Amino acid sequence: MFLACTHLALACTHLALACTIKLRANTPVAGKLAPFLWGVLGRIREKFENEIRDLEQSEKQTNAKYTETKSKLLESEDTIIALRANVKLLEKQLKENREVLSKMTDERSQLKDIVRKEMKQDLSSLEKEVARLKEEKDKELQQVYSRVKLAVAKKDEVLSELTRDHAALQEKCVYLESMLEQQRKEYLIK
Predict the structure, then answer these.
(1) What's residue 2's pLDDT?
(2) Which of 27, 34, 63, 128 is 20 to 30 A off residue 145, Cα-Cα?
């Protein structure tokens, strides 16, 4: 647009110059018309120069806005890239944490099963032992009536000891359950 206005202004100047030369050569009116034409040409030229200045200023402002917008766009794209990388990293960490949690949950379940089996075995063993001792005592009672008082005393003593052992084992079970619960809490905290 700037070049078109410049070419138009030059064309008008050449036209006026050509008209002035012809008019001077041909008629006396040409001497009066020439200053008028030069005045008109000056106003047209001044108008075009003002428009050119305005267009140049507008072009500079537009270029400045374009540059600013482009730099903001690049900054935004860099931020988006950084955020995407951060999201991928967080997703990876979340996946790893879930895997660790799953392993810990499985381990806790396995530990519970192991402790339960041990407790059942201990309890079963104790029950068998009690049953065996009771059978022995019954046989002894049937075989030797004369030693009943001695056998009863011995039986009471054995039962008392077994009760203490049983109580100790129950305390051990309570202790193991509390240790298991504590380990579970520690695993969850880690």
Answers:
(1) 46
(2) 128
For residue 37, give the nearest of 8, 10, 15, 16 by alpha carbon.
Answer: 16
Q: pTM of the full predicted structure?
A: 0.37
Of 16, 48, 14, give the one whose Cα is nearest residue 33: 16
Q: How many domains does the chain have?
A: 1
Read off the pLDDT band of 144 (50, 70, 90): low
d(CA 154, CA 68) in angstroms, rounded, equals 101
pLDDT class for 186, splitting at 50, 70, 90? Answer: confident
- Residue 51 domain boundaries: 2-189
Element (H, E) at 147: none
